[in-house]
Amino acid sequence: MASIRRSLVALLALLVVAVLGVVPSYASSHREAPLTAADPQIDSTDMYAFVSPDSPDTVTMISNWIPFESPAGGPNFYPWAPGVHYDINIDNNGDAKPDITYRWVFTNHYRNPNTFLMNTGPVSKLTDTTLNFYQTYDLTEINGRTGATKTLLANAISAPSNVGAASMPDYASLRNQAIVPFDNGSSKSFVGQADDPFFLDLRIFDLLYGANLKEAGHDTLDGYNVNVMALQVPKSALASSGNATTNPIVGIWTTAERQSIRTEASNGTEHSSGPFVQVSRLGQPLVNEVVAPVGAKDLFNGSKPANDAQFLKAVQDPEVPKLIQSVYKIKAPATPRNDLVEVFLTGIKGLNQPPKVVPSEELRLNMSIPPTAVPNRLGVIGGDKAGFPNGRRLTDDVVDIALRVMEGELLGTKTGLGDGVDSNDVPFETTFPYVALPHSGSFVAAPPVAPAAKTVTLTKNRGVSTPLTAGIGAGALILGALIVWLIKRRPGPPEAEEEAAPEAEVHHVRTPRPRRASGE
Amino acid sequence: MLRAIIRTAGLLRGPAVLVAFCLTAACVRPSLQAAPAAVRDRGGIGAIQQRLRSVPADWQAWAGLGASYVQEARRTGDPTYYPKADEALRRSLHIRPTDNADAMIGLGALAAARHDFVGALSWGDRARAIDPYSSSTYGVIGDALVELGRYKEAFKAIQHMVDLQPGLASYARVSYVLELQGDTSGATAAMKMAADAASNPSDSAFADYYLGELYWNSGRTDDAARMYTQSNEHDATYVPALQGLAKVRAARGDLPRAVAGYEDVVARFPLPQYVGELADVATAAGQPALATDERGLLDIQRKLFRANGVNVDLDEAVFDADHHIGRDRGLDAARREWARRKSIVVADALAWALHANGRDHEALTYARTALRLGTRSALFFFHEGMIERSLGLRTDAHADLSRAASINRNFSFVWGPKLPSLIASVR
Q1: What pLDDT score was predicted for residue A355?
Q2: Could you give the C-alpha distances from B194 to A26, A260, B144, B162, B169, in angstroms and in order?
Q3: DSSP for A437-469?
Q4: Rg over CA atoms, chain A
Q5: Is residue A324 a contact partner of residue A318, using CB atoms and an 8 Å limit?
Q6: Is a pLDDT exceeding 80 seen at residue A154?
Q7: Structure confidence by residue, pLDDT tens digits, B96-139
Q8: CA-to-CA distance for A68 and A223, rounded, in angstroms?
Q9: Which of A25, A71, A219, B231 pairs as cysteine with B208 (C-beta 3.0–4.6 A)?
């Protein structure tokens, strides 16, 4: 009997396994559930905040979620998690507590309840019945001091994932329909999908694990999308007492909260729900990579800025420079690193440090610094005070900045470190919401491959990987191995024009700050 | 101000969690770290493998790979993932032996998958000592405690899990413990929250299937069918959904297609539970030859499993008692399992095996033990009712058998159809 034969073949496979000492378990009595289900919907990837270049009386905040959205993500694509509190928090007096919280809460809608498919035909308007699945959001402003809430937007529509040209022939139009003004047109909200604006070569971090990599300088996030909530509000809406002139410095971070639930059986008809629990937190970029210790990731994601003193040691005595020293022989700056305390916890004195700051990890923005016409990707260490770590613009090269700062840029040590990726794979837009349109679902990208011109060879020397700089084609960006000493060791200045600025201006940026003896 | 911070720092030098730093690409984007645990397909596992070829010392990636394998085995039912999981997790632990909670959580999940619940609990406890903020740790601990029948501690662990990290993994567990306590509406609400929190097709298929099971176990066949169908649409390779659809066909009287559905399920995974159900459906469909074949297969299967150290005691006890075959053997099996763990599921199996051997007084004690949490299980009430019937407790038997019928008359292909006449017999 055919079914018996098929079964026996499968059994044989099981037997082979059993011989290897495995115990398959398929008793009906044993419930197995995923243990650590990925939860990208509450995974905050990046937070941006900057004075709007085309509307300098306003600030734009962009909060990104759901990393590594492959454009071909059907059939579910990338909805927001319904019911979750997606928050942008503002601390406008430096006390490490949210004074204003902007909260987005999403609701799912199916126009045809018999299918969960995103669309049932071409979509040209967000209100088309062919857009079967869509999400609306309520945007609420919460006063952190009084708890008072104010509904800014109700039932606004989020732009759907870009499922492809056949289904959404004019995606740009769908995006525009999702840009919603409020407060008499003084503010704007956009929620939807976009190209992931973060650019970096993730593998720089692998080098410290002894990775044997033959290429570098590839934007790991090239071709990926992300979910975006963008908000543009007048500076006065963020400033303490509504006065952005006297109180121009704000600290910003995102959080997400999911609702807990009780394990006790309820005797009534209603199940007992629990409190909302913070499951995600993000202010400055790369904090989880260069500051938060391993094993403390969940701790950090559930923590409040007001308790950030617990991370102080990690900031003052960071591991990254030590690893770089052990692998690449670049001397780690002396500890404790009070320069990093300013960058990560208090803001830089004279630039974006509030007068009475409680140390806490926030993306701090001095709103009084006007936008730069031609932003320097290196931001403050590039002499451009309108960029990271004074807020963060889409074009700021935070990996290079963070690496250089970790290696003592603010202490006067120039390393020129970088990952070889200096800009995003696609250009940003010049108007709100600034992020680029998402990659289309009908385009399935080939796996990323570093261009041959960028290939470099790593050599081994006494078991230590030594990066060598590469020969670069004319006009190409500087690339080396993953970490290179561009300024010090390279003759010839393909990047000289840009790099000249930080050399000249960094001392200006390095405002005086208290120095402490290392024993203190 | 700085002075104050530095003073604080001195006080904070203690915590071990602040020692090491996250440097892997897997940490740069949290999802890279999370992804392995819920990798959708072999492509995902392939990506981690590729990463490990370039960064073989990445202990977190090894742990993630191991967890992915355990998850894949759960999702596809393919046990060849288990030795791979074991190897990857132990490799991670070898590279980073001391503060490697990730690997310990993975090893705990693996032990549970192999029905070594004591071992799972031990790994969970070790992981908790390292990272008390990881919700997965409490998942490992809670799962093991549930299977060991230590419910009070289990519910506490799962409450802690969901309070640390509300999400699909914790909502699904809360749903299960509410179901065990007989709170079907609460269990359904929790599983709907899990479905809402699902972020990929395989997790959606999982949550929808268990929503279907909650409806099925409440006798809501049409609602169950809807959820099994949806589960299957999310992930056509998810076998439990196929089993759900097959049993819906049987419940609706479409026995030939039910048999065909079960043959497909069994061809994919010849698991004892599925093979036994196929035999029962074939009997009901008037295909005794097929039923005999499948029972023969089941016998071979058990011998193979047992010869290789696989614990199939529980399945054997229930099946044998149902079919009045190998009664002593079934009872021995149930007693062995009861010695290992005192869960309500094992209590029920032991009660039924005792009943099959005519030891109904003893059986009734275990039948009541099985119902001690208030679980709304048609099977448990049926077993209790049958034991009471044998003891001449007609009123109790009538109440319990009627209750079984009112909860879910499709709870068994063998007994479901006989339920009305059994109830009539104790009127």
Answers
A1: 93
A2: 23, 11, 21, 11, 7
A3: PPPPTT--PPPP---GGG----EEETTEEE---
A4: 25
A5: no
A6: yes
A7: 998 899 999 999 999 988 788 999 999 999 999 988 888 999 99
A8: 9
A9: B231
Give the one of A34, A76, A292 whose C-beta lies nearest to B71's C-beta. A34
pTM for this prediction: 0.81
Cβ atoms of A432 and A232 closer than 8 Å: yes
Nearest to B28 by CA among A480, A489, A294, A302: A294
Please, what's the largest Cα pairwise distance for chain A?
A: 86
- Counting DSSP H helices and E strands in chain A, the numbers are 12, 14
DSSP letters along A206-220, please?
A: HHTTT---S-----T
Q: What are the beta bridge partners of residue A191? A: A229
Token reading at B113: 């998958």
Of A187 and B299, which is predicted with more confidence?
Answer: A187
* Average pLDDT of every residue of chain A: 78
How many residues are recorded in chain A? 520
Facing residues of A259 across strands?
A: A276
Query: Which of the residue ranges A422-431, A433-442, A460-469, B313-322 would you say has the lowest mean pLDDT?
Result: A460-469
| Contact criterion met (CB < 8 Å) for B196 and A82 | yes
- The residues near A474 (Cβ < 8 Å, ≥ 6 apart) are none
Contact B145, B157 (CB under 8 A): yes
Percent over 70 (pLDDT), chain A:
72
CA distance B366 to B355: 10
Distance from CA of A482 to the nearest CA of B (A): 13
CB pair distance less than 8 Å for B267 and A13 = no
pLDDT tens-digit map of A288-330: 766 666 667 778 888 999 999 888 888 899 888 887 888 778 8
| DSSP-derived secondary structure letter, A192 | E
Contact between chains at A45 and B305 (C-beta distance less than 8 A): no
Which residue stretches of B269-412 are H helix? 272-284, 288-307, 313-323, 327-340, 344-356, 360-370, 378-390, 394-407
Q: Find the DSSP H helices in A183-303.
A: 204-207, 235-238, 287-290, 297-301
Instruction: Quote the CA–CA distance of B28 and A212 in Å, as a whole number.
Output: 19
Q: Please report, for residues A329, A363, A489, B20, B211, the alpha-carbon distance to residue A485 in angstroms, rounded to integers and kept in the order given.
A: 12, 28, 6, 26, 57
Nearest CB partner across the interface for B269, out of A10, A83, A294 = A10
Contact across the interface for A40 and B189, Cβ inside 8 Å: no
Output the CA–CA distances (angstroms, integers) from residue A42 to A80, A161, B119, B209, in the order listed: 8, 17, 32, 24
CB pairs under 8 A between A and B: 376
Q: Which residues contact B91 (CB under 8 A, 6 or more apart)?
A: B62
pLDDT tens-digit map of A68-100: 888 877 777 899 999 999 999 999 999 999 999
Query: B339-365 burial string, b = 16+ CB within 10 Å, else e?
Result: ebbebbbbbbbbbbbbbbbeebeebbe
